[in-house]
Amino acid sequence: MGKITEFDIDGTLYQTELTKKFENRKMWKKPDPKQIKSFIPGTIVEIFVKEGQKVKAGEGLMILEAMKMKNRIEMPFDGIIKKIHVTEGVKVPNRLLMLEIE
């Protein structure tokens, strides 16, 4: 039997045993808004920006094709493109860092 852990949720105490899978899980960390990562596996069809380019919020950065759909990746806020980590035609897995913003 594993270690019993207590949780306090809204003033009520709960006891549970944590599984090894839960204890060994990859811890969640807050996403960095200055890093644009792929949200689905796919192919980079087109890149509209260059490193060092100033881009305004809402402008298109690239097209990520996944499951026969072309997803337009847009700039989340005004900024400068620091580094592009992908090229056109490359297949990307889920959560790959595609672009960094200054």
How would you describe the overall organization of this protein?
By secondary structure, the protein is mainly β. The protein has a domain at 31-101: RNA polymerase II/Efflux pump adaptor protein, barrel-sandwich hybrid domain (OB fold (Dihydrolipoamide Acetyltransferase, E2P)). 4% of the residues lie in helices and 48% in strands. It is built from 1 helix and 10 strands; from the N terminus they run ββαββββββββ. The strands form 3 sheets. It has a 4-stranded antiparallel beta sheet, with no helix packed on it. A 4-stranded antiparallel beta sheet has the order 7-6-4-9, with no helix packed on it. Strand 6 (60-66) and strand 7 (69-74) form a beta hairpin. The protein is elongated and about 55 Å long.
Topology (SSEs and partners):
Layout lengths: L3 E6 L2 E6 L2 H4 L11 E3 L4 E6 L6 E2 L4 E7 L2 E6 L4 E6 L6 E2 L4 E5 L1
Antiparallel strand pairs: 1-2, 3-10, 4-6, 4-9, 5-8, 6-7, 8-10
Please summarize what this structure is.
This protein is mainly beta.
Number of separate strands: 10
Strand order in space, largest sheet: 3-10-8-5
Alpha-carbon distance between the two ends: 49 Å
Query: Which radius of gyration do the C-alpha atoms yield?
Result: 20 Å
Question: Number of DSSP helices?
Answer: 1
- What is the percentage of strand-forming residues? over 45%
- Please identify the top-level CATH class of one domain: Mainly Beta
Largest sheet: 4 strands, antiparallel
The helix/strand order is: EEHEEEEEEEE
Q: Return the average pLDDT rounded to an integer.
A: 94
Give the second-level CATH assignment, the architecture of one domain. Beta Barrel
The third-level CATH topology of one domain is OB fold (Dihydrolipoamide Acetyltransferase, E2P)
Shape: elongated
CATH-wise, what's the superfamily of one domain?
Answer: RNA polymerase II/Efflux pump adaptor protein, barrel-sandwich hybrid domain
Poorly predicted ranges = none
Instruction: Give me the secondary-structure category.
Output: mainly beta
Helicity level: under 10%
